[in-house]
UniProtKB/TrEMBL annotation:
Keyword set, alphabetical order: Signal
Leader sequence segment: 1-23
Name assigned to this protein: DUF3761 domain-containing protein
Length: 82
């Protein structure tokens, strides 16, 4: 019984110590907007599978495209005739 009382008292003390004394504020996002501008290129190089977020091209398989370049903005599917 005494152990139960000590454990309960310790639990209440920990909760009281960890509870903030003031309200919590919600962080607001900045008012600015980020725009993405792709490179203006009329012709995409042959064999490209994706355009990356940083504007570079990837010729890797689509599952591995743009790794380390921020991800894929646009993926291309190439159909080949037999």
């Amino acid at each position: 019984m005494k152990k139960h009382y000590i454990f309960s008292l310790l639990s209440v003390a920990m909760l009281a110590a960890c509870t903030p004394r003031h309200g919590v504020e919600v962080a607001k996002a900045p008012e600015t907007k980020t725009e993405f501008r792709a490179k203006s290129s009329d012709k995409i190089p042959q064999g490209v599978t994706a355009i990356c977020v940083d504007g570079s091209y990837s010729k890797s398989p689509i599952e591995q495209a743009c790794q380390g370049n921020g991800g894929v903005v646009k993926a291309f599917v190439h159909y080949h005739a037999d």
